Amino acid sequence: MKIITSINEMQQLSLSLKREGKRVAFVPTMGFLHEGHTSLLREGRRRGDILVLSIFVNPIQFGANEDLDRYPRNLDGDCTIARECGVDLVFTPTAGEMYPPGFQTSIRVRELALPLCGASRPGHFDGVATVVTKLFNIVQPDVALFGNKDFQQLAVIRRMIADLALPVEIIGLPIVREADGLAMSSRNAYLSPDERRSALCLSRAIHIVRERYAAGERRANVLRDEALKLIAAEPAATIDYLELRDAATLEPATDASDTTLMALAVKIGTTRLIDNTLMCDER
Ligand code: PAF
Asked: Could you report how far apart the first and last alpha carbons of the chain are, in Å?
């Protein structure tokens, strides 16, 4: 496994591998890898001749008062996991390499990036779309893999790929959960043992809503109220948003259907966690 920090080296290597007819699979991450990431890497290994992992904590997708400085990092641990998953190339540039002095270009996806995380983290998806476009230009992937946990991120990336005719196949993979239901996230590392227990209110809210939906409830406001009630009963939790929306357009839903998305962001203490489900989740 080769570790690369230079944009030029990564790009030249990818271009020459592709000239040899190799199919490049790519998993972009911010590191501190967990089983959510390893599911992407294993699927990427299956789909590509060459598997590239990027590890880059992207400063332009963090707001001024967010956790950029304390975002968990562990490059050695990540490289061990990457080796186990059969990664060929790890691309881990510095912020200076990605955003040298004078950098001033941004990619903005409009409507899909406005609600949910876009509303509570203004500019976040501009940062994501910009870095993903740049990473795609550097790594030149044939296929790129993302987790469904960042549902809106995936929707924004798919829209951007279609709108800009980028020649990359995008694969979304199911949320990976701990045995007790908590969705895997690098930010789970911030939780104290008590907070870790409180954080289960997110997956419990999902569970109860899916049960009510399976039992025939279709009124989006009733489903939403069930989830809100459950989370409000957890003293450590502060709701950022909890909404039912159409999974394709992210427009608010009044009547739920199988393709209605429930997405939520909840602060447990100071840690902001997100989770989501489709009413009939076969992802
Ligand atoms: O999902 C992530 O880890 C990041 O948002 C991504 C896609 C790697 C862009 O920085």
From this structure: 31
Among 173, 208, 232, the domain-final residue is: 173
Whether residues 72 and 168 share a domain: the answer is yes
Q: Are residues 128 and 265 in the same domain?
A: no
Q: Is residue 269 part of a domain?
A: yes
Average pLDDT by consecutive 10-residue portion of the chain (283 residues)? Answer: 99 98 98 98 98 98 96 98 98 98 98 98 98 99 98 98 98 98 98 98 98 98 98 98 98 98 98 97 63
How many whole angstroms from 28 Cα to the centroid of ligand 1? 6
131 lines ligand 1 (CB under 6 A): yes
Number of Cβ within 10 Å of residue 6's Cβ equals 14
Distance CA(80)–CA(84), nearest Å, equals: 6
Both tokens of residue 164? 């800009």
Q: What is the pLDDT of residue 283?
A: 54
Residues 114 and 231 in one domain: no
pTM: 0.97
Domain membership of residue 281 (yes or no) is no
d(CA 262, CA 246): 9
Annotated active-site positions, please?
37
Range of the domain at 88: 2-173
Q: Locate the ligand 1 atom nearest the alpha carbon of residue 150 and give its number.
A: 1
Distance 62 CA to ligand 1 centre (A): 11
Domain assignment present for 57: yes
